[in-house]
Amino acid sequence: MSNEVKKNYTNQELNAMSNDELARLGTELDDVTVAFRKERFPVANDPAEKRAARAVTIWVLVGIIAAIAFLGVYIFWPWEFKNLGEEGHLFHTFYTPLLGLTSGISIVALGIAVVLYVKTIVPEEISVQRRHDGPSSEVDRRTLTALLNDSWETSTLGRRKALQGLLGGAGILFGLVVVAPLGGMIKNPWKRGELGIMGDGTLWTSGWTLHEQGVKLYLARDTGAIAEQHSGETGSHWTTVGVSRLVRVRPEDLDAGGMETVYPLPTSLVNDGDMYNPERDVYEEHMHSVHGPRNPVMLIRLRTSDAEKAIEREGQEDFHYGDYYAYSKICTHIACPTSLYEAQTNRILCPCHQSQFDALQYGKPVFGPAARALPQLPITVDEEGYLIAKGNFIEPVGPAFWERKS
Ligand code: FES
């Protein structure tokens, strides 16, 4: 094999060789044996060749049209959330399926075009290569270039200008289909908006930050309630009027050893108990609280025998209310929800990378990659017996990032 092939060629000798000769030399030097090779269309302008090229062209065109449709939907389709019954709700519900459909068709069509091209136009060839170690010699590099040139020639793409253009266009559009959605994720982490139930847009605020502006915040549980269907003489419709997604929590709502996820609920958005008004629609605001990325808090009721052993962190001695402790649910590793509370060991487990936090020791990490304690929310009970926040978190919630001081 390669040991029998002459390897030392001068530049003059290499320059004197044609592309075919260099390609053949390359296969020999690479210990490649071409076991079988057959042109698909030995006769130029074979009608079957035209048919094959047409099929490839059609699939590339389908891919291009779908990619353009994807970009059109992504940029122009009305994507903003609309409640059931609100004008534009139907269009809004089609946004995500249309993105999936158009990007899926464009990727599949492009894939089919490539497979068809290889299966019906590129010459059939079976080559066998033996592996060898070490870097490539000058001869190898030159011959490899020649081989690539040869592949380009034999692929016949060089003379199919229309298909070349289409494939180039499809490649660019396909790239845009992949890259364009990333644009939606780029945001300025320091850009402040108005402070609301989801924070002010920066990484160190949440709905609980509203407490710093004197807003009374209840700890509220998510009931999972959805829009209700109302029927009347004029027909039926769905409405969120009178539906309360978040309701206030009292200490007696939780059993000893229990855990409940709670969200901030300002007095102005309360619609339960003696403050219930069936005419009010607070549903959307409640959902904003539920979706606030740094809002979820784990309200844990320790068993009294365990609570007696609890160790408070300096400066947080009065953050708990009796046996009730409230820790941020956002993992300090990389922000998964630390959803699992194990009552026997009083450990909070993050399912993402198995960090464990000790609920008896101010949420300090005791296992896994998380390096910071879960921030603790100061809580108490108001004169009506509802659990409320006594203050904001004293440190940013979530993973350690570059401006963290704690
Ligand atoms: S995000 Fe919680 S352990 Fe990694």
Structure keywords:
single chain; 406 residues; alpha+beta; Rieske Iron-sulfur Protein; 2 domains; 4-stranded antiparallel sheet; binds FE2/S2 (inorganic) cluster
Describe the structure.
One of its GO terms (molecular function) is oxidoreductase activity, acting on paired donors, with incorporation or reduction of molecular oxygen. Its main location: membrane. InterPro entries: QcrA_N, Rieske_2Fe-2S, Rieske_2Fe-2S_sf, Rieske_Fe-S_prot. The protein is an alpha+beta fold and about 400 residues long. The protein is built from eight helices and 15 strands. The strands form five sheets. It has a five-stranded antiparallel β-sheet. The mean pLDDT is about 90.
Q: Short description, anyone?
A:
The chain is 33% helix and 17% strand. With 406 residues, the chain is of the alpha+beta class.
Topology:
Elements lengths: L10 H6 L2 H11 L2 E7 L8 H30 L12 H32 L3 E6 L8 H18 L5 H23 L33 E6 L5 E5 L2 E5 L6 E3 L9 E9 L16 H9 L5 E5 L2 H4 L16 E5 L11 E3 L4 E3 L6 E3 L5 E4 L11 E3 L5 E3 L17
Antiparallel strand pairs: 1-2, 3-6, 3-7, 4-5, 7-8, 8-9, 10-11, 11-12, 12-13, 14-15
Bound molecules: FE2/S2 (inorganic) cluster.
CATH fold description of the largest domain: Rieske Iron-sulfur Protein
Main pleated-sheet profile: 5 strands, antiparallel
- Compute the separation of the termini in Å: 66 Å
Strands of the widest sheet, in order across it, are 6-3-7-8-9
Task: Give me the Rg, rounded.
Answer: 33 Å
Q: Tell me the series of helices and strands, N- to C-terminal.
A: HHEHHEHHEEEEEHEHEEEEEEE
Helical run tally = 8
Task: Extract low-pLDDT stretches.
Answer: none
List the ions, cofactors and other small molecules found in this model: FE2/S2 (inorganic) cluster
Q: How many separate structural domains?
A: 2
Shape: elongated
Total strand count, please? 15
Oligomer: single chain
SSE class: alpha+beta
Subcellular location: Cell membrane
Keywords: 2Fe-2S, Cell membrane, Disulfide bond, Electron transport, Iron, Iron-sulfur, Membrane, Metal-binding, Oxidoreductase, Respiratory chain, Transmembrane, Transmembrane helix, Transport
Pfam family, one: QcrA_N
Domain Rieske: 294-388
